[in-house]
């Protein structure tokens, strides 16, 4: 059934059959690496470093409010009544809050390089033609296709029921990472697949190492020129392993017969190279996702004095490009052409940029002194009640004067009149 439905749209599958990498990855369970580990986007999420980055980026995007704005004359105001505002600010669909939806799509983009959501439109009532809900699609079963006959772009996805559906771009929210062709993002996992394979192999080694319950490796030496028969060697090895196998036997005293001596060969986990390899792996994953190392436990360069600067850099260099990507896609897809002349959406990054209380106080003071913020606006940012009409006034310092009035102001200070004569 699946193949028949796909083959009916042959032009969409010619690229797949001639370049079968994507579907071979799914069938074979991922791409092999030099470490012998197979890595897919699903298995990569089990890597603690990738999981942490996905959790950080997903959580940060999920918690940031998306606000809907409307241009009115020469001014701009928030609009909480538009359906887009409700979908992005409260409930994306009957089963997902706005936070869960945003977090999920960002995790998809972090792992697969692409996040897709199907737009459900209202078909009747006062909101006819406006978005009703957003339904995330499985990125591992969704792809972008270009019809070789018409040149049109379509999305092909497999629903949980097994139905193959062809969806026009106007009905899809597509958040993509860096891309080679502008149509589909590159999976970051493909970039760090080898590094993740090494980390998976390291974890398997650690598990096997500690499962043996012994902290050292070594040999049993027979004194003098004595030579053991193969059966005796096997028996000695078996007895030694019985005494030291498993955590329950880790501290038991081993008794050696016939003057045998045990010589430790050293613990491989003491090697600085092993530790450095683990640290390097964390840095590589953090670098790909542009997540500061201190968020993944690398505290060498994280100091209290520069922590705020690093957090600000994270917002500007990591979150800002992501939210811009979201904003432009949402504004274009969820508003009609006529609405886009007045409506647009913005993430509110104020909470991430405010800093500590002292920094916020200094910022608010400057904004009020320049007449940018009103007192009630500052109180709203701090989630405090307004103080009524008195808080809706703008203030500006009397020390400020416009440039066109500067000469007149200086003349008045010098005691000169309009005609340049000294006043009485």
Automatic annotation (TrEMBL):
Instruction: Identify the InterPro entries for this entry.
Output: Phage/GTA_portal (IPR006944), Portal_HK97 (IPR006427)
Q: What Pfam families is this protein classified in?
A: Phage_portal
Note the NCBIfam families from the entry: portal_HK97
Protein name as annotated: Portal protein
